Amino acid sequence: MNTFHAHDDDQVEGGALGRKLGLSRRQLFAATTGMAAAAAITALPGRASAAVSATALGTPLIRDSKRGIILYTVRDAISRDPNTTTLPSGFKEVLKALSEIGYERIEFAGFTQHANAEGGANLDSVAGATLLRSWLDEYGLRAEGNHGFIPGSWPLTQADLDRFKVSLEIANILGMDHMGTGNDPTGSNYKADWDIAAQKWNVLGEIARNSGYVKLYTHNHDAAYNFLLDSGPLDAQGRPTRSSGIRKLEYFLGITDPKFVNLEMDIYWAHVAQYKHRTYTAPDGSVQTNIFNPLALVQAQEGRYPLFHAKDGKINTATANGYDMVPFGTGDIDYTTFFRGLVSQHHYPMYEQDTAPGGTANPAQSLQFAQISYNNLSALTTE
């Protein structure tokens, strides 16, 4: 079992991970919220910290078996050359490191790594998935999803359909219950394009479910929560210029089949949408205000949100988005209220931070932030 030494300046042992990252207790204390959370982290890192936090702080709001991470957060570690560093690198070593931290669920962001890592550069194949599955099993991890290939064309071409079916085969080998994309269903503002996107996703979702127990999901950014252009007058191209007040993703939910189409709300980007997309021009030309409530949208159809991106943000109104990305639990998004507002425990919050990689100045940063964020995610309690 991994242990801390008794002195404040000692390094987190955490097996090979702690020694490689050089993460001190002071760093963890500074990044976690509340003295109680810090006390829990002091006792034991990794998987053991979840049990300590449950005892010291109450019932965990997110059970340890539900806590996950999308590998985009640690993409720098996966893509670096293992021959030039002692830090975890490539899928195998990074999966091991994440397991030591305590994560149990993994969301992939593609299947490429550095060519010198075990298995080679590209594991996007049946053989590659078999190798990845062996590492997941070895480290007690489970794949929950992947931001992978979703055909862009409609109607579907045979080539796209064939590639999509290979992606589903890979998902089944990895044991994924979900497969999706990192993009919105369409980048358009117009109702006609969302109608087409819904038609395509209904078909793809049915194919996915028929291939095995794979639920198809789309991941959102803030633009998907802007208002749909669905009302006249029309522009020179015959497109609507005003809105009935429905948001694009709300409309998409209403015209897709809940058996086949699911969503992964990125909670950070949903709060960016709350900050940015507040007004629309109604059919009569008046400007209307409508403040977006991410939790209310989820509560309306909670079963359609098997995955979340648990990405935190610190308010910064000097930026266009209104927030800066920070490690989970160190920002201003009220995750306690959000998760307490859900009825079901059948959700997998995947920690994500686009800005976690520290570059050459701090190559260990993304895994350090993964440790901090895991401890803060495990410190959330039901009351």
UniProtKB/TrEMBL annotation:
Give a Pfam family name: AP_endonuc_2
Q: Could you state a single Gene Ontology molecular function term?
A: isomerase activity
**Keywords annotated in UniProt:** Isomerase
| The species this protein was found in | Streptosporangium vulgare
Q: Which domain of life is it from?
A: Bacteria
Query: Entry's Gene3D superfamilies?
Result: Divalent-metal-dependent TIM barrel enzymes
Keyword check for Isomerase, yes or no.
yes
Alphabetized InterPro entries for the sequence:
IolE/XylAMocC-like (IPR050312), TAT_signal (IPR006311), Xyl_isomerase-like_sf (IPR036237), Xyl_isomerase-like_TIM-brl (IPR013022)
Keyword Isomerase included in the entry's annotation: yes
Protein name (record): Sugar phosphate isomerase/epimerase family protein
Give start and end of each Xylose isomerase-like TIM barrel domain: 96-342
